[in-house]
Design brief:
33% helix, alpha/beta, globular, single chain, 10 helices, 13% strand, two-stranded antiparallel ribbon, signal
Length: 251
């Protein structure tokens, strides 16, 4: 009898306890989503760690499908690529609840804007001299005639290099760009501040944050980051800006 009474008291106590706030618990386990509005070209410049920014004359750019070859060349020749600047999490395209960029990465326009702004910011950090790696460059090439004109290099990064950019109190000015093949070898003159080998390709008039000859930039060749995310990037190596309030992502 005492057992039955005790059991009844236990049941009444459990039933009368307030229900756990399940929705809040679930939300607490989610990382809040970032907004594309937070990631301007200037934001990427300001948030590029100073100890990871490229030294003058060390920037290596590349065109479609050359991520790994460019990174290998840069590592072995004292240069840097875009992947060396920002902490790994800012390149994260994984569709998981702990990734604050998942909302941006699910939206094609936002995704393109995000990485275009990052690429232009990367070019803005370069000074004095830069190189671009392209599959079409050979020892007999006239570089400006063969380098791919349909991707983020020609439509975003090149205009930024030609334009020159103020970073903090310093004006970065690139005076010479040379092109190189994936195999290395002697680089070819691509563009200089003094004499442009191909006047028709001067994209500097596109203006800050603009894409030159946008009709040449298609979804396939602009989204180089979707299938070329380096496997050794530490994706969770990043710290979010605590001053930014992000809405909870309901996906």
């Amino acid at each position: 009898m005492k057992f039955v009474a005790a059991l009844c008291i236990f049941i009444i106590t459990v039933v009368s306890m307030p229900a756990a706030p399940m929705q809040e618990v679930l939300r607490d386990k989610r990382t809040k989503c970032a907004s594309i509005e937070d990631y301007s070209v200037q934001w990427f410049i300001d948030n590029a760690p100073k100890d990871r920014r490229p030294a003058p004359s060390t920037c290596l750019f590349y065109t479609f499908k050359l991520t790994e070859k460019a990174r290998w060349y840069a590592k072995n020749n004292g240069m840097k690529t875009i992947w060396d600047v920002w902490p790994g999490g800012y390149y994260d395209n994984r569709m998981i609840k702990s990734n604050p960029l998942r909302e941006i990465m699910q939206n094609k326009e936002d995704r393109r804007t995000y990485f275009s702004n990052m690429s232009i910011a990367w070019a803005s950090l370069c000074d004095i001299y830069a190189m671009v790696m392209d599959n079409n460059v050979t020892p007999t090439s006239v570089a400006c005639d063969v380098v791919n004109k349909m991707g983020i290099w020609f439509n975003g990064e090149l205009p930024a290099l030609q334009r020159g950019n103020k970073v903090g109190n310093k004006k970065n000015v690139v005076y010479q760009i040379q092109a190189i093949s994936p195999a290395g070898g002697a680089p070819l003159d691509y563009w200089t501040k003094w004499k442009n080998p191909c006047d028709q390709q001067d994209a500097s008039a596109a203006g800050p944050g603009k894409l030159h000859v946008r009709s040449l930039a298609t979804e396939e060749n602009m989204d180089w980051w979707e299938d070329e995310l380096p496997k050794d990037i530490e994706l969770e190596d990043y710290k979010l800006d605590d001053s930014t309030i992000w809405p909870v992502c309901e996906r």
